[in-house]
Amino acid sequence: MTFSLPAPCNRPESRYLISACSSLASHPGGIVTEAPAACLHPLSDPLARPRTYFPFGISAEVRTVPRAYVHLAHEDTVFITGWKRLKTHKFLLTAVWPGSAGIRPYDPRVLSQLIRQSGLAIAHAEYDVPLAYQTLLHSLDYDVAEGLALPDDRPTPLEIEVAVSEAGRKGRTARSLTMEVRLRAHGATVVTSRSEFGWVSPAVYRRLRGGRPTAAWGAWPLPAPLAPESVGRTADADVVLSPGLRPHHWQLRNDVANTLLFDHPVDHVPGLVLVEAALQAARARLPGFAVRTVRSSYQRFAELDEPCWIEVRPAGPPGPDGGGTLLVGGTQDGRPVFDIALGGTVRRPVSHP
């Protein structure tokens, strides 16, 4: 099947497609061929191609935005299906929550991806952020409605309302954007979020990284995982923690077999991996912990090939249900990498007579 290119729309991001896609070319199946179509609504854009691989159970009729807009190599993890501008700095996106089997509590990995993809799509399509620029995640906060559970046997359509404020520009390009997000399912708001993203040119990014040599993708030592069930996962590849040196202390493990977290080769640990590490640490510390709030900040890049240590401690006495707020910190080479505060409750196993 062939797809026709849209007419040129004179948006500056289209000039950066080749260099943006070349960073994915070394990843198997990761060569991005779609050109941005910033002047078109992706739902009617012929480049928003049908899916061909659906590990999450999304049907072949679902069309999503070009992968280049959300910096992903794998089509099965693109959840944004379209957007439109409501006001000068307010947008409405459509998306799908993927399904697999049954109805169960939401997966925070999918939620974090949805928030990330919403920010990237709007930044590139509406704020002239070139695709070749490097994204810096400064903070990611969200609140989840109590008892949120979504059907996993089919995709759930979502609406995502995004309000944007700018913190500065260099020429036509936004350097930093703060985004307030409201995610709605079946007409009800189920998640609110606030995040701050920054962007730098490839040259500035090289200076930030200081010419540090990059380890071959996946070549670093991979420590043994915790038992998957102890962190709310079912497979070793989904576990991002390894036993540490003392109680409530773990080592980060970067298993690139997990393409939901490690979509394509990069030169540092992705921010969403650090969020997942904090969530798993909370479950290891408090079995049955169900997160309701996330407050995160990031101080520096986490290197893939150096030990990163994760610790968790309660912020205060537990609540009536055993939950409360847990403070998770990550350090590398003795320096702080991130801090994440998690608020939640503890789900107790249901006993049957």
TrEMBL record:
Pfam families: AfsA. It comes from the Bacteria. InterPro entries: AfsA-like, AfsA_hotdog_dom. Residues 69-192, 231-340 form the A-factor biosynthesis hotdog domain. This is ScbA/BarX family gamma-butyrolactone biosynthesis protein. It comes from Streptomyces johnsoniae.
